[in-house]
């Protein structure tokens, strides 16, 4: 009888050790990995399509999309008619040593000026002439200048931020005039608030290379802002998936919450290129909402400068939409 009881007790203990929670723990972890942001990043496509207008015409643009059958595609639209921006077959022939799997969206940072295609693939930058047969591609070893990102429409000036202050620079000589001197971590100029996922993915992320500035069509004015974020609440994001060394990465970022009294605010800042000076506008501050830049709203990127009538009197600027 005692032997039977001992056998039943042993089986009971063994059953406790093999509970579903223990047996399935590894499977549940692997299943959870399938739904991480990194895994799902390449499974959601065409959430937004951004037209890239060609500079020499108002009726022609191109955009990137993703097809389940064909993978990454670049479409050119001319007079409402669509066709491929370039031949994927010819591009692969020009990059014979670089295999292109279009299902994996291999091309990044794509730009096109009407004749030449520039992009990066496998962390290498290329310039390709696609108006010839066959295509001619060259490896671009020179990193893109930051000035190219914030260049005026006429190509004569650009702006940059260093030590949280704005400078206006000439594109031909790279000489710069520092416009502000009161910028700090708490009161920077032109900076966006990055997504925390971006901070985790880019360990050397430099916020001063990610600005929100808008040029007027005639390149005479540029508008941005000065941020006020001292005392704004911060959150911490932790990467729950450890690396090979089992270390866990964390980043902190500005994130105001409901009920907070201190919110990030932005005061508009207007640069007059001819006068080589800037002015903080005597206008109500704009609330910076979570991520991105402080200037937002429907069509803000295209109409903030081009569709306003700016009247300047002394130190006051009135903007009428």
Automatic annotation (TrEMBL):
Domain of life: Bacteria
GO biological process: proteolysis
Record's keyword terms, sorted: Signal
UniProt-listed InterPro entries: Peptidase_S9B_N
Gene3D superfamilies documented for this protein: Dipeptidylpeptidase IV, N-terminal domain (2.140.10.30)
Stored Pfam families: DPPIV_N
Keyword field contains Transport: no
Signal peptide feature range: 1-25
Domain Dipeptidylpeptidase IV N-terminal: 143-284
Name of the protein in its database record: Dipeptidyl peptidase IV (DPP IV) N-terminal region
Species of provenance: Colwellia chukchiensis
């Amino acid at each position: 009888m005692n032997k039977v009881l001992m056998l039943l007790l042993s089986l009971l203990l063994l059953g406790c050790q093999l509970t579903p929670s223990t047996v399935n723990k590894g499977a549940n972890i692997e299943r959870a990995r399938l739904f991480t942001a990194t895994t799902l990043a390449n499974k959601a496509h065409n959430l937004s399509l951004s037209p890239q207008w060609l500079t020499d015409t108002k009726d022609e643009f191109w955009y990137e999309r993703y097809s389940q059958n064909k993978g990454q595609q670049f479409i050119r639209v001319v007079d409402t008619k669509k066709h491929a921006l370039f031949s994927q077959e010819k591009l692969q022939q020009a990059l014979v040593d670089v295999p292109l799997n279009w299902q994996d969206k291999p091309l990044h940072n794509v730009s096109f000026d009407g004749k030449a295609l520039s992009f990066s693939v496998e962390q290498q930058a290329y310039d390709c002439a696609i108006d010839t047969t066959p295509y001619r591609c060259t490896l671009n070893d020179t990193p893109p200048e930051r000035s190219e990102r914030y260049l005026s429409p006429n190509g004569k000036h650009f702006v940059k931020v260093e030590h949280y202050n704005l400078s206006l620079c000439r594109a031909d000589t790279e000489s710069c005039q520092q416009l502000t001197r009161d910028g700090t971590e708490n009161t920077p100029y032109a900076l966006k608030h990055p997504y925390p996922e971006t901070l985790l993915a880019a360990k050397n992320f430099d916020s001063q290379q990610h600005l929100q500035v808008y040029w007027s069509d005639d390149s005479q004015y540029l508008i941005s802002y000065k941020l006020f974020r001292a005392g704004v609440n911060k959150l911490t994001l932790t990467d729950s998936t450890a690396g090979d060394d089992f270390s866990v990465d964390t980043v902190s970022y500005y994130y105001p919450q409901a009920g907070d009294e201190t919110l990030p605010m932005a005061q508009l800042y207007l640069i007059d290129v001819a006068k080589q000076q800037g002015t903080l506008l005597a206008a109500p501050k704009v609330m910076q909402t979570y991520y991105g830049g402080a200037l937002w709203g429907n069509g803000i990127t295209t109409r903030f400068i081009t569709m306003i009538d700016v009247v300047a009197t002394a130190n006051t600027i009135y903007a009428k939409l």
